[in-house]
Amino acid sequence: MTVDLSEVPVDQLMKEVSRRLECTRKPEKRIILIGPPGCGKGTQSPRIKYDHCLCHLATGDMLRAAVAAKTPLGMEAKKAMDSGGLVSDEIVVGLIEEATKSPECSKGFILDGFPRTLVQAQKLDEMLAKRAQSIDKVLDFQVPDRMLVDRIAGRWVHPASGRSYHEKTAPPKVPGVDDITGEPLIKRKDDNVETLKARLSAFHEQTAPVIQYYAKKVIQLQAQKSADEVSKQINAALAK
After folding, report:
1. Count: domains in the chain
2. Could you confirm whether 41 is annotated as catalytic?
3. Is-contact 199 36, C-beta < 8 A?
4. Transmembrane segments in this chain: where (predicted)?
5. Domain, as residue range, for 78
6. Average pLDDT over residues 63-77
7. For 22, which of 50, 52, 176, 229 is 20 to 30 Å away at the CA?
Protein backbone atom coordinates (compact mmCIF):
# COMPACT_ATOMS: atom_id res chain seq x y z
CA MET A 1 0.00 0.00 0.00
CA THR A 2 1.34 3.43 -1.01
CA VAL A 3 1.03 6.21 1.56
CA ASP A 4 0.99 9.88 0.49
CA LEU A 5 3.25 11.78 2.90
CA SER A 6 3.12 15.09 1.05
CA GLU A 7 0.58 16.54 3.47
CA VAL A 8 2.50 15.52 6.60
CA PRO A 9 4.60 18.36 8.08
CA VAL A 10 8.35 17.78 7.70
CA ASP A 11 9.01 18.20 11.42
CA GLN A 12 6.52 15.43 12.21
CA LEU A 13 8.13 13.15 9.64
CA MET A 14 11.61 13.80 11.04
CA LYS A 15 10.39 13.22 14.59
CA GLU A 16 8.91 9.86 13.60
CA VAL A 17 12.05 8.83 11.69
CA SER A 18 14.15 9.75 14.73
CA ARG A 19 11.86 7.75 17.02
CA ARG A 20 12.07 4.68 14.79
CA LEU A 21 15.86 4.88 14.68
CA GLU A 22 15.89 5.12 18.46
CA CYS A 23 13.62 2.06 18.61
CA THR A 24 16.23 -0.05 16.82
CA ARG A 25 18.55 0.52 19.79
CA LYS A 26 15.99 -0.40 22.44
CA PRO A 27 16.36 -3.73 24.24
CA GLU A 28 13.64 -6.32 23.79
CA LYS A 29 11.01 -6.49 26.53
CA ARG A 30 8.07 -8.82 27.11
CA ILE A 31 5.76 -7.43 29.77
CA ILE A 32 2.54 -8.57 31.42
CA LEU A 33 0.17 -6.05 33.00
CA ILE A 34 -1.91 -7.41 35.88
CA GLY A 35 -4.47 -5.42 37.79
CA PRO A 36 -8.16 -5.18 38.67
CA PRO A 37 -10.68 -3.21 36.57
CA GLY A 38 -10.01 0.52 36.84
CA CYS A 39 -6.43 0.13 38.10
CA GLY A 40 -4.93 2.32 35.36
CA LYS A 41 -3.58 -0.24 32.88
CA GLY A 42 -5.44 1.48 30.05
CA THR A 43 -3.78 4.80 30.88
CA GLN A 44 -0.26 3.39 31.21
CA SER A 45 -0.11 0.88 28.35
CA PRO A 46 0.05 3.49 25.53
CA ARG A 47 2.91 5.24 27.36
CA ILE A 48 4.84 1.98 27.81
CA LYS A 49 4.18 1.04 24.19
CA TYR A 50 5.54 4.35 22.90
CA ASP A 51 8.51 4.69 25.26
CA HIS A 52 9.77 1.13 24.77
CA CYS A 53 8.69 0.52 21.13
CA LEU A 54 6.48 -2.44 22.02
CA CYS A 55 3.23 -3.74 20.61
CA HIS A 56 0.14 -3.81 22.85
CA LEU A 57 -1.77 -7.09 22.84
CA ALA A 58 -5.24 -7.00 24.42
CA THR A 59 -6.65 -10.50 24.05
CA GLY A 60 -10.28 -9.39 23.78
CA ASP A 61 -9.45 -7.09 20.86
CA MET A 62 -7.35 -9.83 19.24
CA LEU A 63 -10.21 -12.33 19.42
CA ARG A 64 -12.69 -9.91 17.87
CA ALA A 65 -10.23 -9.01 15.09
CA ALA A 66 -9.47 -12.67 14.33
CA VAL A 67 -13.20 -13.52 14.14
CA ALA A 68 -13.88 -10.52 11.89
CA ALA A 69 -10.94 -11.43 9.61
CA LYS A 70 -12.08 -15.09 9.52
CA THR A 71 -8.60 -16.41 10.22
CA PRO A 72 -8.32 -20.15 11.02
CA LEU A 73 -7.94 -19.41 14.75
CA GLY A 74 -10.70 -16.82 14.50
CA MET A 75 -13.08 -19.37 13.01
CA GLU A 76 -12.25 -21.83 15.79
CA ALA A 77 -12.93 -19.12 18.37
CA LYS A 78 -16.23 -18.25 16.67
CA LYS A 79 -17.39 -21.87 16.87
CA ALA A 80 -16.74 -21.90 20.60
CA MET A 81 -18.50 -18.57 21.14
CA ASP A 82 -21.49 -19.49 18.96
CA SER A 83 -21.99 -22.69 20.95
CA GLY A 84 -21.90 -20.76 24.21
CA GLY A 85 -18.55 -22.17 25.25
CA LEU A 86 -15.31 -20.51 26.29
CA VAL A 87 -12.52 -19.91 23.83
CA SER A 88 -9.75 -22.36 24.72
CA ASP A 89 -6.44 -21.24 26.17
CA GLU A 90 -4.73 -22.91 23.19
CA ILE A 91 -6.56 -20.63 20.75
CA VAL A 92 -5.72 -17.50 22.73
CA VAL A 93 -2.05 -18.47 23.02
CA GLY A 94 -2.09 -19.20 19.29
CA LEU A 95 -3.41 -15.70 18.59
CA ILE A 96 -0.67 -14.22 20.78
CA GLU A 97 1.96 -16.28 18.97
CA GLU A 98 0.71 -15.07 15.58
CA ALA A 99 0.56 -11.44 16.71
CA THR A 100 4.08 -11.43 18.13
CA LYS A 101 5.50 -12.38 14.73
CA SER A 102 4.49 -9.01 13.28
CA PRO A 103 7.14 -6.30 12.69
CA GLU A 104 5.38 -4.08 15.24
CA CYS A 105 6.28 -6.64 17.93
CA SER A 106 9.95 -6.98 16.95
CA LYS A 107 11.07 -5.32 20.20
CA GLY A 108 8.60 -7.21 22.34
CA PHE A 109 5.08 -6.79 23.63
CA ILE A 110 2.76 -5.72 26.42
CA LEU A 111 0.17 -8.36 27.33
CA ASP A 112 -3.01 -6.93 28.82
CA GLY A 113 -5.80 -9.24 30.01
CA PHE A 114 -3.80 -12.45 29.73
CA PRO A 115 -2.80 -14.64 31.48
CA ARG A 116 -5.66 -14.60 33.97
CA THR A 117 -5.06 -18.07 35.40
CA LEU A 118 -2.10 -20.24 36.37
CA VAL A 119 -2.75 -22.66 33.49
CA GLN A 120 -2.75 -19.78 30.99
CA ALA A 121 0.56 -18.50 32.39
CA GLN A 122 2.10 -21.94 31.98
CA LYS A 123 0.84 -22.29 28.40
CA LEU A 124 2.14 -18.83 27.53
CA ASP A 125 5.57 -19.68 28.92
CA GLU A 126 5.63 -22.96 26.98
CA MET A 127 4.94 -21.09 23.74
CA LEU A 128 7.64 -18.50 24.41
CA ALA A 129 10.18 -21.15 25.47
CA LYS A 130 9.91 -22.77 22.02
CA ARG A 131 11.23 -19.46 20.66
CA ALA A 132 13.92 -19.14 23.34
CA GLN A 133 12.00 -16.22 24.85
CA SER A 134 10.42 -15.50 28.22
CA ILE A 135 8.46 -12.87 30.13
CA ASP A 136 10.76 -10.15 31.49
CA LYS A 137 8.55 -8.22 33.89
CA VAL A 138 5.08 -8.50 35.40
CA LEU A 139 3.69 -5.13 36.47
CA ASP A 140 1.21 -5.62 39.30
CA PHE A 141 -1.12 -2.59 39.53
CA GLN A 142 -2.22 -2.51 43.17
CA VAL A 143 -5.21 -0.37 44.12
CA PRO A 144 -7.47 -0.83 47.19
CA ASP A 145 -10.84 -2.19 46.08
CA ARG A 146 -12.72 0.71 47.72
CA MET A 147 -10.95 3.20 45.41
CA LEU A 148 -11.90 1.35 42.24
CA VAL A 149 -15.63 2.01 42.46
CA ASP A 150 -15.20 5.76 41.94
CA ARG A 151 -12.67 5.20 39.17
CA ILE A 152 -14.97 2.88 37.25
CA ALA A 153 -18.09 5.01 37.66
CA GLY A 154 -16.41 8.01 36.02
CA ARG A 155 -14.44 6.23 33.29
CA TRP A 156 -14.78 6.98 29.58
CA VAL A 157 -12.83 5.15 26.86
CA HIS A 158 -11.70 5.78 23.29
CA PRO A 159 -12.51 2.34 21.79
CA ALA A 160 -10.03 2.42 18.87
CA SER A 161 -6.91 3.17 20.93
CA GLY A 162 -7.90 2.10 24.44
CA ARG A 163 -7.11 5.56 25.83
CA SER A 164 -9.11 6.13 28.97
CA TYR A 165 -10.33 9.27 30.74
CA HIS A 166 -12.07 10.05 34.00
CA GLU A 167 -14.70 12.75 34.26
CA LYS A 168 -13.22 14.04 37.54
CA THR A 169 -9.52 13.15 37.71
CA ALA A 170 -8.48 12.98 34.03
CA PRO A 171 -11.16 14.57 31.86
CA PRO A 172 -10.74 15.00 28.09
CA LYS A 173 -10.13 18.53 26.80
CA VAL A 174 -13.58 18.48 25.23
CA PRO A 175 -16.26 16.50 27.13
CA GLY A 176 -17.09 13.19 25.45
CA VAL A 177 -14.33 13.48 22.83
CA ASP A 178 -10.88 11.88 22.50
CA ASP A 179 -8.06 14.43 22.82
CA ILE A 180 -6.05 13.09 19.87
CA THR A 181 -8.57 11.93 17.25
CA GLY A 182 -11.65 13.97 18.16
CA GLU A 183 -13.70 10.77 18.02
CA PRO A 184 -16.49 10.05 20.53
CA LEU A 185 -15.70 8.39 23.85
CA ILE A 186 -17.83 5.53 25.15
CA LYS A 187 -18.84 4.15 28.54
CA ARG A 188 -18.34 0.39 28.72
CA LYS A 189 -21.44 -1.65 29.58
CA ASP A 190 -19.67 -3.40 32.47
CA ASP A 191 -18.43 -0.16 34.05
CA ASN A 192 -20.92 -0.22 36.92
CA VAL A 193 -20.67 -0.98 40.65
CA GLU A 194 -22.52 -4.32 40.60
CA THR A 195 -20.45 -5.76 37.77
CA LEU A 196 -17.26 -4.38 39.32
CA LYS A 197 -17.78 -6.26 42.60
CA ALA A 198 -18.20 -9.56 40.75
CA ARG A 199 -15.17 -8.88 38.56
CA LEU A 200 -13.01 -7.96 41.55
CA SER A 201 -13.91 -11.18 43.32
CA ALA A 202 -13.02 -13.23 40.24
CA PHE A 203 -9.83 -11.23 39.68
CA HIS A 204 -8.47 -11.82 43.19
CA GLU A 205 -9.33 -15.52 43.09
CA GLN A 206 -7.86 -16.22 39.65
CA THR A 207 -4.82 -13.98 39.43
CA ALA A 208 -3.29 -14.52 42.87
CA PRO A 209 -1.72 -17.80 41.66
CA VAL A 210 -0.44 -16.02 38.51
CA ILE A 211 1.34 -13.39 40.60
CA GLN A 212 2.82 -16.13 42.78
CA TYR A 213 3.92 -18.06 39.66
CA TYR A 214 5.82 -15.03 38.33
CA ALA A 215 6.97 -13.93 41.80
CA LYS A 216 10.59 -13.27 40.83
CA LYS A 217 9.50 -11.06 37.92
CA VAL A 218 6.70 -9.14 39.63
CA ILE A 219 7.04 -5.40 40.24
CA GLN A 220 4.38 -4.06 42.58
CA LEU A 221 3.08 -0.62 41.61
CA GLN A 222 1.28 1.74 43.96
CA ALA A 223 -1.33 2.34 41.29
CA GLN A 224 -3.65 4.41 43.50
CA LYS A 225 -1.30 7.37 42.90
CA SER A 226 -1.55 9.85 40.02
CA ALA A 227 -0.93 8.66 36.46
CA ASP A 228 2.38 10.55 36.28
CA GLU A 229 3.58 9.05 39.57
CA VAL A 230 2.65 5.55 38.41
CA SER A 231 4.46 6.21 35.13
CA LYS A 232 7.62 7.09 37.09
CA GLN A 233 7.35 3.80 39.01
CA ILE A 234 7.03 1.91 35.71
CA ASN A 235 10.00 3.68 34.14
CA ALA A 236 12.13 2.81 37.16
CA ALA A 237 11.00 -0.83 37.05
CA LEU A 238 11.68 -1.23 33.33
CA ALA A 239 15.08 0.44 33.55
CA LYS A 240 16.42 -2.41 35.70
Report:
1. 1
2. yes
3. yes
4. none
5. 29-154+191-238
6. 89
7. 229
